[in-house]
Amino acid sequence: MLCEEYIKIKNSLNYSPHVRFLAFQSYLTSHSLQRQLDGISYNFDDKIVADIGTGLGILPCLLKNRKAEKIIGIDSDMELLSAGSSLMKDNNACFICADGFNMPFKDASFDAVFIRYVFQHVNLSNNFLTEVKRVMKDDGILIIIDIDDELNLFYPDLPKRSENLFKIYSEYQKLKGGDRFISKKLPSFLSANGFRDIKVKPYTTTFFSKKDNDFNFSGLKDAFLLIQNELELVKNDLFREKLIGMAEFHKGLNDYFNFLNSKDDLFVSKTEFVIAGKK
Ligand SMILES: C[S@@+](CC[C@H](N)C(=O)[O-])C[C@H]1O[C@@H](n2cnc3c(N)ncnc32)[C@H](O)[C@@H]1O
User: Fold this and answer.
1) Is the dihedral of CA 238, 244, 249, 252 positive or negative?
2) Ligand 1 centroid to residue 36 C-alpha, Å
3) Ligand 1 mutation target, pool 6, 16, 19, 75, most atoms within 8 A of CB
4) Which domain covers residue 214, as residue numbers?
5) Residue whose CA is closest, atom 12 of ligand 1?
6) What is the pLDDT of residues 85-143, one digit of tens each?
7) What is the Cα–Cα distance from 158 to 177, expressed in whole angstroms?
8) What CATH number corresponds to the domain at position 220?
9) Would you say the CB of residue 6 lies under 6 angstroms from ligand 1?
10) Would you report the helix, strand and coil content of the chain in percent, each value rounded to 5?
11) Total domain count for the chain?
12) Is the distance from the beta carbon of residue 75 to the nearest atom of ligand 1 less than 6 Å?
């Protein structure tokens, strides 16, 4: 089973921390991604599909039942691609190592292009979208999935030191050219770059109350572990850039963990967006 394979990578010391982090993220978000893919009415039969910034290839893996002729996962990180390709057993999918700003494909190569969780890391003022558009066929469809941290809700309020830590992490991502508040900006960005028929679909993951029968408290714990892993990956950069001291960093994480365990009724909600447009 695919998701178990991702957990094996997450738990294996043969992989570097950033590969293991992405394996964990791929695993934790796979159900929600599958639901979003199932909700896309586009007919992928016999189509040539690209997934730009594919990482470990979770999207090509989950798209395998849609009968595309070919799914190409593109990423600039060879280490991620080689870990991902060990999981990829379908012969209609393959991986190519390339920069999304300068891809080794002819004009009009793809019927459909996916870009998931990449715009939050890529500077919008660069020519990324021009290059994406170049490789799309006329009438081709672009499907973006991304976050907007402005729509993360907590009740009661997050502890101040955790809020501060998350704010610093956003600032750090911005310093590197990214944006954790990106989704709301993408529709106008697509429109300004000549895309049409732009559609926006928000979807929300919400946890409430561990007393609730339907409530999956391990989901909350996993969400914590994910952000903890993400922050652990960049903490030395945060210290080097003097964005936060080591003590404040760990207090912020500890407070968040205690916050998640503190109450029977806790509201935690995160909204992401599927944004589609035609060339
Ligand atoms: C957060 S990961 C998302 C991976 C995957 N799309 C997913 O949903 O799990 C962002 C990915 O974008 C890739 N990436 C960032 N900038 C890129 C670029 N200029 N060209 C190609 N890939 C890029 C990174 O290497 C990384 O694998």
Assistant:
1) negative
2) 19
3) 75
4) 2-278
5) 53
6) 988 877 788 999 999 999 999 999 999 999 999 999 998 776 899 999 999 999 999 99
7) 26
8) 3.40.50.150
9) no
10) 45, 25, 30
11) 1
12) yes
